[in-house]
Amino acid sequence: MQITDINGTVTLSNGVKMPYLGLGVFKTKEGQEVVDAVTYALDAGYRHIDTAAIYGNEEGVGIAIENNKVNRSEIFLTSKVWNANQGYDSTLKAYDESLAKLKTDYLDLYLIHWPVKGKYKDTWKALEKLYADGRIKAIGVSNFLQHQLEDLLQTANVVPMVNQLEFHPYLVQQPLLDFCQQHKIQYEAWSPLMQGKIFEIPLLKELADKYKVSVAQLVLRWDLQKGVVTIPKSIKNERIISNADIFNFEISAEDIKKIDGLDRGERVGPDPDTFNF
């Protein structure tokens, strides 16, 4: 990943350019809260917005994009099919419902939200159909571990272009990151700031002081230097701006290894092997 500035992108396996920094809107309330957050991000230079059907805020995201001076064609918009809607026909229907709420006629990226056993292969076939029909620019998965990816790849005609996973200093999963890189599956981080727990880790505070940045800026820069697309969530304008101020320093290889060394396989979210929703 070549890191330049807030306008920087990674090129997916099909040639589509995906901004490596975006705004996530998980738990951002539908209505003015999400409209404001997306507006702040677009005004600050972000061009990547990540939502999902289950977040219940696609309509607000759509309103913010529709009302912003930034053209839709310049925005990389992601949503995800929820577990209850997985399966071939129900996924096609769910996609249309997401488009209607988002007030757009295509998505830049559509993901299977979780690997629902017995359903994700049919769901993937639906995504392949939408992609073949030119209705989505890129397709991928979320929360797929290596064995689930290997299972999917046995029948997939298209290799997922993205795998969005929980990723932070306590959950690096380097073998999974390596597997995705080998198969040209772009790794993307959700919960990169560990829902605020990064601020309790002494090493991160020490390194942030060394580079004269905030702990959040340090961790988001670490994501990018690991080749991982990142979508921190915030509803505060100043925090959204601050999260994007990560292009005037570079973490040394030695300090990258120190942050990697914090890995303890610890999750702040559900385990893809045991989730039950």
TrEMBL record:
Site feature: Lowers pKa of active site Tyr: 80
Alphabetized InterPro entries for the sequence: AKR, AKR5G, Aldo/ket_reductase_CS, NAD(P)_OxRdtase_dom_sf, NADP_OxRdtase_dom
Catalytic residues as annotated in Swiss-Prot or TrEMBL: 55
Pfam families recorded: Aldo_ket_red
Domain of life: Bacteria
Keyword line: NADP, Oxidoreductase
Binding-site residues for substrate, renumbered to this chain: 113
Every NADP-dependent oxidoreductase domain range: 26-263
Alphabetized GO MF terms: oxidoreductase activity, acting on the CH-OH group of donors, NAD or NADP as acceptor
PROSITE patterns with a match to the protein in the record: ALDOKETO_REDUCTASE_1, ALDOKETO_REDUCTASE_2, ALDOKETO_REDUCTASE_3
Similarity comment: Belongs to the aldo/keto reductase family.
Protein name: Aldo/keto reductase
Organism of this sequence: Chitinophaga silvatica
